[in-house]
């Protein structure tokens, strides 16, 4: 897999420190989030500072210079809070404490400070739909069967059937099996995810107050925003009606269900927007919301709600030019209707890595590199999942005994493959865990990952890492602005944006075109005889016009 490095384009790439200023510094960078590139750090798998095989906050801090050099604007850290880790930390037992696995509050403070010094902002996860079953609130609810006591913070219900032996309704957990679990005293509680993740009752004012206080805690520590887990799930349809057709919600799905995307969630987000706006420096909220359409998703980013919402329609889109074009058009139109940016994403810790989704092997990597250039050419903000800049594929052969994804262990689970995208990333070509840490790694890394490490790819102009670095540096210099489609041969998407033309060849053959302009960057080697450009199969290029 090869690519031509961009010829010089006349402007030096800004250093990280000259990039967007951190929230604390000034009003420069106003609306910084509208076109920000935000890098997702899956803390457990990013860098391990103490050799226990599990990534941690100090490890992440030590590696921040790599991210600054990559050319991103902000990092999003997945949950590092005190947790029994029944779902990789998305089961929080104490929202104001760092789990000892990942360090302590001083480490969190140090990370935020170091990031700001490097010109990077920091977004942290907040998990408001459910707590851990070890959270003091849930322990109190289990201990007191009074339905009007501590149980009012969750959804406890009597069962159906002659003896209450059947769940209160037919809702299925996203991870498989019923969404209800019975307590020893006979009541049932709701958990849209694992039984260890009881759903909170957002009709209870105390829940609102607690989360306001949690957000303030982290904002006071200096974070620049929140990625809001299950932002579409906190409010359930009144009366919790049966679905009637036994449908299990799929992870990152788009079904219409009585427990997702209810209109009531928007009032919560409005309240949080007011809270975010009461802090200086444009702190942001990004919704992880699974909505049935681009229009429904856009409601989360109305001017008085959140700033961004992940565009999972783009993530789920197959390698098919008509589908890609219409997802892009629909997404841009929907967000434009509310004055918000579109937020592009190709991978995260819940989905099969995109080189594998796009067919795997050499073809998958070619397409992944091309998709990255397409995504970075689009108007709006972009999220990069750790390791995608290395072209890492999904690890598909993990033995059952090392797996930790709760979906894998629930027989009816519809996914079960989330561990394969969470394998710790390689930093060095050699070493016990390819530089991830001094010890091993909590999931085994494939032997070929040494060759994909940061060290192995650095300085190799044909590497995926250098492709990302070059593209991110170029992106900073481009004027931006809206995009429009230009005509092109079948299978070729051609978009133009204020001085930039981006060509994506989705076909398996070379496509010849009159040279669209001066080649800035290409995901594969571009042959340009005379005035012609031979656009390689499954490749993308940027041209200056
Ligand atoms: C979405 C998170 O990304 C995923 O990892 C988690 O399992 C669910 N929300 C439940 O919190």
TrEMBL record:
This protein's name = Glycoside hydrolase family 13 protein
Alphabetical UniProt keywords: Hydrolase
Q: Does the keyword Hydrolase apply?
A: yes
Q: Organism's domain of life?
A: Bacteria
């Amino acid at each position: 897999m090869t690519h031509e490095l961009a010829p010089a384009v006349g402007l030096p790439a800004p250093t990280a420190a000259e990039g967007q200023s951190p929230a604390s510094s000034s009003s420069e960078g106003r609306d910084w989030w509208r076109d920000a590139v935000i890098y997702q750090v899956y803390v457990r798998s990013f860098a391990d500072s103490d050799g226990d095989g599990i990534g941690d906050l100090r490890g992440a801090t030590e590696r921040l210079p790599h991210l600054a050099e990559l050319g991103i604007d902000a990092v999003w850290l997945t949950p590092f809070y005190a947790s029994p880790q029944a779902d990789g930390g998305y089961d929080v037992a104490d929202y104001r404490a760092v789990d000892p696995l990942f360090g302590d509050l001083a480490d969190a403070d140090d990370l935020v400070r170091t990031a700001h010094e490097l010109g990077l902002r920091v977004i942290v996860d907040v998990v408001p739909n459910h707590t851990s079953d070890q959270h003091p609130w849930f322990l109190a609810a289990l201990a007191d069967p009074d339905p009007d006591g501590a149980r009012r913070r969750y959804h406890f219900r009597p069962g159906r059937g002659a003896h209450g032996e059947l769940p209160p309704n037919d809702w299925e957990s996203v991870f498989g099996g019923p969404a209800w679990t019975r307590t020893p005293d006979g009541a049932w509680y709701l958990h849209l995810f694992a039984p260890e993740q009881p759903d909170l009752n957002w009709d209870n004012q105390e829940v609102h107050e607690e989360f306001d206080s949690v957000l303030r805690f982290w904002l006071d520590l200096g974070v620049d925003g929140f990625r809001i887990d299950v932002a579409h799930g906190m409010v359930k349809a009144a009366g919790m009606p049966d679905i009637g057709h036994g449908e299990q919600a799929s992870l990152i799905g788009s079904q219409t269900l009585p427990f997702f995307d209810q209109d009531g969630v928007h009032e919560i987000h409005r309240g949080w927007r007011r809270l975010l706006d009461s802090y200086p420096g444009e702190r942001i909220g990004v919704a992880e919301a699974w909505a049935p359409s681009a229009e429904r998703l856009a409601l989360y980013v109305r001017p008085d709600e959140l700033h961004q919402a992940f565009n999972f329609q783009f993530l789920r889109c197959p390698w098919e030019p008509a589908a890609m074009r219409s997802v892009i058009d629909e997404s841009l139109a929907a967000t434009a209707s509310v004055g918000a940016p579109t937020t592009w994403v190709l991978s995260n810790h819940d989905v099969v890595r995109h080189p594998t989704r796009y067919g795997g092997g050499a073809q998958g990597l070619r397409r992944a590199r091309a998709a990255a250039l397409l995504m970075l050419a689009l108007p709006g903000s972009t999220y990069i999942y750790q390791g995608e800049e290395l072209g890492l594929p999904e690890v598909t052969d993990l033995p059952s005994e090392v797996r930790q994804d709760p979906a894998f262990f629930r027989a009816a689970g519809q996914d079960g493959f989330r561990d394969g995208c969470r394998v710790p990333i390689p930093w060095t070509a050699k070493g016990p865990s390819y530089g991830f840490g001094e010890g091993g790694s909590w999931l085994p890394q494939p032997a070929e990952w040494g060759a994909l490490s940061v060290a192995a790819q650095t300085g190799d102009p044909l590497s995926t890492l250098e492709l990302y670095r070059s593209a991110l540096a170029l992106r900073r210099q481009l004027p931006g602005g809206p995009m429009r489609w230009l005509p092109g041969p079948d299978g070729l998407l051609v978009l133009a944006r204020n001085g930039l033309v981006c060509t994506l060849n989705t076909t398996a053959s070379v496509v010849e075109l009159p040279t669209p302009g001066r080649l800035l960057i290409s995901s594969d080697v571009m042959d340009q005889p005379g005035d012609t450009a031979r656009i390689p199969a499954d490749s993308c290029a940027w041209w200056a016009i």
